[in-house]
Write a structure and sequence with these properties.
The chain is of the alpha/beta class. Helix content is 39%, strand content 15%. The chain is globular and about 55 Å long.
């Protein structure tokens, strides 16, 4: 597990101390190639596409709606994927739907599971030999024990994942990807980034809790813990996995594990804004009961609760994980988490996504 530091340095998770590694200077030696990227307009995919192009690769980017330099394509159609990816030497799957709403279960299954299965089928028929698939650390890392730090060998907490359609769909998609790997003809590597933060979350899918903090919309802090990583570092992790990852393997990408109390205190020190004072109890039934009463009161006066009950339930658990395998086998390192938080806040403010409660202190 990597942790925060000073001076823009990075720290390995093996206890050997800080290493100075400038952002973007990881020793990737991949020669220029034609590479296919699905989800190229998303938070992770856009950073990956920019990184690949900056390194001289010819990128065929696709997404459901398309965009500047990105074609519109439904990856649930294997034939369309095959036609689009023909001639590519490698591929990256960054597409998918992110939602905490239980009502989105069917859409999550289609856009995460069916899309992964169809994309892999199309890529294989197109002659693509190596694919890196982006999953999430949540398929391995969620648990009740604050002392548990998940690794790639950890078992999924199925009793918890079964409650949440997003993580359930990501777990099934991940399994589809690993089962499709059949070296040497078709190699699939999976990366499992923790919560993505940093600049460029145009769809506000990952940075919503930072936005809520800036707007003063968090009435009480849940008792759980979270893990996060910079989306720019996760993009580099995907590139490293393509170059060095072992087929059929998973690689967790994480920068820091923090209790939610510590996370919001850190945002408070960074921005000069006060952290939420109220803390929810460790007892999940009690915490959810308090949340339900608060939500009912808000709805009774015609409002909408700032945090949905599913998100609050998730935040009562611990999502800690270690990136030691990625550091050891891929040479991946995460930047100083403080830089990630600073850039996340700055980006949200500069794009006008949030109106902070007061002028920020940096």
């Amino acid at each position: 597990m990597s942790s925060a530091g000073n001076g823009g340095r990075r720290k390995t998770g093996n206890g050997n101390g800080w290493r100075s590694v400038p952002p973007g200077a990881l020793p990737i030696e991949l020669p220029p190639r034609r590479l296919w990227v699905a989800g190229a307009t998303g938070f992770l995919g856009s950073h990956l596409t920019a990184e690949l192009r900056a390194r001289g690769h010819a990128v065929v980017g696709v997404s459901r709606r398309g965009g500047e330099g990105v074609g519109a394509l439904d990856v649930c159609d294997a034939a369309l994927v095959e036609a689009s990816a023909r001639g590519s030497e490698g591929a990256f799957l960054c597409m998918g739907k992110v939602s905490r709403d239980p009502a989105d279960a069917e859409a999550l299954y289609r856009q995460n599971v069916v899309a992964t299965r169809a994309a892999l089928q199309g890529l294989r028929r197109a002659g693509v030999r190596r694919v890196v698939v982006a999953s999430t650390s949540g398929t391995l890392a969620v648990g009740r024990d604050p002392q548990r730090i998940a690794t790639e060998e950890s078992s999924a907490s199925m009793d918890l994942i079964a409650r949440w359609p997003y993580y359930r769909s990501k777990l099934h998609a991940e399994r589809e990807a690993l089962e499709a790997s059949s070296p040497p003809d078709f190699e699939v590597v999976v990366v499992n980034p923790s919560l993505l933060l940093g600049p460029g979350d145009l769809q506000a899918s990952s940075t919503i809790d930072v936005r809520r903090f800036l707007e003063g919309a968090i009435p009480a802090v849940p008792a759980g813990g979270m893990a996060f990583v910079d989306a720019r570092d996760a993009a580099l992790g995907m590139l490293l996995a393509f170059e060095r990852g072992r087929a059929g393997e998973r690689y967790l990408l994480n920068a820091q594990n923090l209790t939610l109390v510590a996370f919001f205190q850190r945002l408070s020190r960074l921005t000069g804004l006060p952290a939420p004072r109220l803390r929810l109890p460790r007892s999940r039934p009690v915490a959810l009961g308090i949340s339900a009463l608060f939500s009912s009161a808000v709805r009774a006066i015609g409002g909408e609760p700032p945090i949905d009950e599913t998100s609050l339930e998730m935040a009562q658990y611990f999502w800690y994980c270690s990136s030691e395998k990625a550091e050891r086998e891929l040479g991946w390192v995460a930047r100083d988490p403080g830089e990630t938080l600073r850039d996340t806040v700055s980006d949200l403010a500069l794009r006008g996504v949030v109106s902070p409660r007061t002028e920020l202190s940096f």
